[in-house]
Design brief:
By secondary structure, the protein is α+β, with helices and mostly antiparallel strands. The protein contains one helix and eleven strands; from the N terminus they run αβββββββββββ.
């Protein structure tokens, strides 16, 4: 009787072990399939990003409106910060559209602070390599610049690349690098002032958490 019970228990444990392994294999197969055909039309993501920004190249202009080359800027060597929220809608397995809103800041040499609030439309193409995703994107929109009592509205253009790790079907985490172009074309009494035009180029390095739904 004891041998029969032991044999039944052994068979039961083997069955449960095989069942657990098969479930694990099934889940892994599902994830492999999901990762292979990861996106379809209608898939969406919501992304929160935080990071640093660094002023790089600033281009000046003369009174005729011609570029004169690089000019010094008044920003502190200390890096600034940025945070943004973005929504993305996939039109297919790779192509996506969306929008974003962010806030960034930089300190000047006199320890004053420049705040920039960019918002715009974004579009891009995403490559998928297993559980790694590499989106290339371009964002175009408007930005509000505020420095002490001065406020300026202007366009901005951003190009970037990211590398995301798909932690689960719902979440991915990534590292981003982007190049930002802020062309400033100020006016005084409704008239342009070409000699005060500046093309500001800003480098951004950030991390993101992305929710998929």
């Amino acid at each position: 009787m004891q041998k029969s019970r032991a044999f039944v228990l052994l068979l039961a444990s083997c069955w449960f072990s095989l069942y657990a392994v098969s479930l694990g294999a099934q889940e892994w197969d599902d994830w492999d399939f999901y990762a292979t055909d990861l996106y379809a039309r209608g898939d969406q993501t919501f992304t929160i990003t935080v990071g640093t920004i660094m002023p790089t190249v600033f281009i000046g202009f003369n009174e005729s409106g011609d570029r004169t080359g690089t000019i010094p800027h008044n920003f502190s060597p200390a890096v600034g910060g940025t945070i943004s929220l973005a929504y993305t809608y996939f039109l297919g397995a790779n192509l996506f559209l969306g929008g974003e809103l962010g806030v960034s800041f930089n300190y000047t040499l006199r320890r004053n602070t420049l705040f920039v609030v960019p918002f715009g439309l974004r579009a891009g193409w995403q490559f998928v390599f297993g559980t790694f995703e590499v989106p290339l994107l371009v964002t175009f929109g408007m930005a509000r610049h505020s420095y002490m009592d001065a406020v300026y509205w202007g366009a901005f253009l951003r190009g970037g690349v990211s590398v995301f790790y798909r932690f689960s079907p719902e979440w991915s985490f990534g590292l981003n690098a982007d190049w930002n172009w802020y062309p400033q074309r100020p006016r005084r009494d409704g008239q342009r002032i070409p000699a005060e035009n500046v093309d500001a180029h800003i480098l951004g390095i950030s991390i993101s958490a992305r929710y998929h739904f």
